[in-house]
Amino acid sequence: MTMTSPSEGNDVQSRQGPNQENSSSVASEPLRGWRLVVILCSFAFGLLLAVIETSITATALVSIGNYFGDPIKVTWVVLAYLLSYMGFAMIFTRMSDGIGRLEATIIAWIFFGAFSLGSGLAKTLNQLIGFRLLQGIGGSGLYSMVMVVGTEITPIKHYGSFSAMIGMTVAVGSILGPILGGVITTESTWRWIYLFNAPCTAFGIFSLLVCWPRPKSNSEIAKNPLRSFHKVDYLGAILLLAASTLLVFALQEAGAAAYAWNSAAIISALAISAVCWCAFFGWISWLSFGEGPRGMRAIFPLTIALTRPTGPAIVAIFLTGFPYLISIINLPQRFQIVNGATPLMAGVHLLPLLCSMALGGGVGGAVSTRKNLTSHTLIFATCLILLGCGLMSTVSDTLTLNKAIYGYQFILGLGTGLTFSSVTMMANLANKPENIAAAQGAISQARIFGGSIGLSIATIVLNHKINTELAGILTPFQLHNLEQSLTTIAELSPSDRAAVTRVYAASFGTQMRICTYLSAAGVIAATGTYLSEPPKISAPMEPVHVDTEMVRY
User: Fold this and answer.
1) 309 preceded by cis ω (within 30°)?
2) pLDDT band at 22, cuts 50/70/90?
3) CB distance 300 to 236 below 8 Å
4) Which of 162, 135, 138 lies closest to 89, judged by CA?
5) CATH class belonging to 30-213+230-537
6) Of 77, 159, 208, 423, which has the fewest Cβ atoms less than 10 A away?
7) What per-residue confidence (pLDDT) applies to 469?
8) What is the DSSP string of 88-107?
9) What does the alpha-carbon distance between residue 515 and residue 520 come to, in Å, rounded to a whole number?
10) Where are its TM segments located (predicted)?
């Protein structure tokens, strides 16, 4: 990222809604030069670690399951992180409006680092799952806060570079996750896939504390740091968290045959989730358009969802989240189960997808460096995702690795990277400063929410094929274990294993066909972001009066 000049610092201040009119009472000076670079790098580093943790466990699941002697329950090591990672993105961005950007980010770092350490030192599988759940809270904060703070300290004319940095960081994190998981598990112990985050956390916190601008001691904010904490929408946060996590939990557990679809646990989870969704939208509607509690801002203002291009962009990113996580998590498993690859080679086979994601992330931001072409980029990106998913669904179910899958991965990854960077930049340019935090939080959460539902649907598809095509081959006990975890395939005879392999390959094709249909809907949503006169890159947004107590620096 290019350093800012004093004039660029003014550009930053001119559209930093929370700091516009009273920035002098909040921070002693605008960020520029080496401090800006260090802070951006620190946030990008946190984003990198958070993304790595979404997939690093995928290639270590077999080792972890064998270590604890429970290959079935071990899948919760991945799911626990994804649930909290998905559920807290919007909560962190809105919480930072109440307690401050720095404070919210440090809380995220502490959660991430402390419970990474706990995960690495876990003595039981239940402890590991619990620590991963709490680690995901920190990862969610690191993921979402970079979208908020980065846009507030980056000059508008460098939005393209910032969006490119974000897209490439997400892609590189996705690249490193499976590879690091495979290398560490092969060369050492699985515990180090979590332990290495502890020293990284110390570096992240230290760099922020050293470089973050200090508030003036005579400001009301400095004297009373929790003064505006009561304005945080706690009820909305709780309702959103319960609605999203219970839905994913029910789909995943029923799909994995841990509970029957008509069991009390699944019916209760789905019913409570539905009630929470209704209550959530009713509550935020009241806060957005009615006479809510004085000073309280909805965790997600409906005005964002009801305006273009942000509303359609959130829908598009939600739909493209399905193939994103299915590819990142399930494709390495396909390489291992169908093609007999080691965890390390499974990560290597995934490189075309991940490298093209990095390329797309960089190109997506660079395209709109001078002119706002984010909508055009997003429409093109969703078309690439549609094409990539369609091609991936045609991969044969033979045990021999079809080299064409590398080209299909490249197309899918390029579209995914372009989508990430273009939507991030679009939200920055299209929203008023006081709404950017909520918009970026919604985008972050929608992406992971869509991906989590996608993984649950993939599990449902796989287990349906297992039940229908292997019922006459495997015993009921073997079928039940296989439905809950594919790691139990190692316990089968060679002939039974070959049958399961064919079913898994066919199941992956079905999963990608479903992603193709959803990606087509994503293209339609992306076209809704088109504006004949989109916000300009060069011109700062018009000043907006914002209560400076809500955002502290």
Assistant:
1) yes
2) very low
3) yes
4) 138
5) mainly alpha
6) 208
7) 84
8) THHHHHHHHHHH-HHHHHHH
9) 9
10) 36-62, 74-92, 104-122, 128-150, 162-180, 192-212, 232-252, 264-289, 310-332, 344-366, 378-396, 408-430
